[in-house]
Amino acid sequence: MKFEVITKDNSCNARTGRLITSHGGISTPVFMPVATRGTIRALTFRDIEEIGFEIILSNTYHLYIRPGIDILEKAGGLHKFMNYDKPLLTDSGGFQVFSLSDLCKVHEYGVEFKSHLDGSSHLFTPEKVLDIQKVIGSDIMMVLDQCTNYPVTREEAKNAVDRTVNWAGLSYRYWKDSFDTDRQALFAIVQGSVYPDLREECASRLLQHDFSGYAIGGLSVGEPKELYREMTGITLQHIPDNKPKYMMGVGSPAEILYAVMYGVDMFDCVMPTRIARNGTLYTSLGRINIKSAANSDDFSPLDPNCGCYVCRNFSRAYLRHIFRMGEISSLIYNSYHNLFFMKEFLNEIRGSIEAGTFLQVYKKWTDIYK
Ligand SMILES: [Zn+2]
Questions:
Q1: For site-directed labelling of 319, which of 300, 302, 306, 366 has its Cα 20 to 30 A away?
Q2: Range of the domain at 348
Q3: What's the CA-to-centroid distance between 302 and ligand 1, angstroms?
Q4: pLDDT score of 22 more than 80
């Protein structure tokens, strides 16, 4: 994998860049839709292609549980299994192990957990999650980290930082020894909860190794917006500019703008598709709830400024009707529109950085999305 910064804004840290992976190039800042189990819920890959996404994200934990590594190995990797030939990033599964499994026990050497599905026992070590991602065939792999909830005590956060750094060191050595490091890149994850000194310590210790990129983890887990923003700024200061910077699990327009201003290049989040399935849609005029009675006889498009298939063809009244009827097409149309919105939103951000007008675009959108 290669990364280069193309344009840098003069008045803030926003930048555009180009990531080159073995399955193709990605213009940054980029939003990565989430195909947790190897598919984007309610959409097809034909839709994803049509919208124009250059990279998607999938999830190591879920793929490991089902269909399982044997099937993925027989299929020749996830790209072949799901017939998708563009870049793929997988998270390490750490977040899911800590948040989903009923019982998880952290050891120095890894984390023991019970499957959320059938209660069977499993062990993830730094090496094991890389082996799984090798079978998946991810272009960008993530290290195993210990994600903390919010709030946590300083002591717990410090322990999680120590473990995250130790595991990252083991991952780095294993990756260098046993992988084609050009074909499969490896990102480290900065933890430290909402403690500025721990964020700084975690970043500087991870930088002792030359990872392909650095992610900000452990944020957007329930902390107040101000703390999220403060930690974003602090963490990013410590990541060198020649590395891609990835903000994990953040997908609201306002928080993306803020993070881009501080230099973030990559985002992923299930939120745009999750809220779409509940009838909440992003538009150029703000968030709307398609269920609202005000839409019952509104025959105007969902978003007059959106060029997507849904906005070109269907009225708010119709979209409200099919939502209320529980039609599958409602999930499809709503998800399609919200992902199209995200793609266009990031295109506009990138264009504005290139044109030197990012702060104007920042202001325009943060007036709409607080
Ligand atoms: Zn649309």
A1: 366
A2: 271-363
A3: 7
A4: yes
Number of domains in the chain: 2
d(C-alpha 248, C-alpha 299), whole Å:
38
Query: What DSSP line would sit under 197-245, residue for residue?
Result: HHHHHHHHHHTTS--SEEEE-S-SSS--HHHHHHHHHHHHHTS-TTS-E
Determine whether 145 is an active site residue.
no
Chain centroid, CA 59 distance in Å: 10
CATH of the domain at 94: 3.20.20.105
List 9, 145, 265, 268, catalytic entry: 268
Query: For the whole model, what pTM was predicted?
Result: 0.98
Contacts of 115 (CB under 8 A, 6+ apart): 65, 101, 121, 122
- Ligand 1 centroid from CA 89, angstroms: 26
**68 and 196 fall within a common domain:** yes
Alpha carbons within 13 A on the beta-carbon side of 203? 24
Domain match, 174 and 238 both: yes
> Residue 168 Cα, ligand 1 centroid: separation in angstroms?
41
Do 97 and 110 form a contact (C-beta atoms < 8 A)?
no
Instruction: Indicate if 91 belongs to the active site.
Output: yes
> What spacing in Å lies between the alpha carbon of 356 and ligand 1's midpoint?
27
Q: What contacts 310, CB < 8 A, 6 or more positions away?
A: 302, 319, 333, 334, 336, 337, 340
| Phi and psi based region of residue 76 (left: phi greater than 0; alpha: psi -120 to 50; beta: remaining) | left
Q: What are the pLDDT digits (tens) for 34-82?
A: 999 999 999 999 999 999 999 999 999 999 999 999 999 999 999 999 9
C-alpha 347 – ligand 1 centre gap (Å):
15
| Exposure of 260 in the CB half-sphere (CA atoms within 13 A) | 35
Options 9, 91, 139, 265, the catalytic residue: 91
Of 269, 295, 311, the residue that ends a domain is 269
199 and 310 in a common domain:
no
- How many A from CA of 282 to the centre of ligand 1? 9
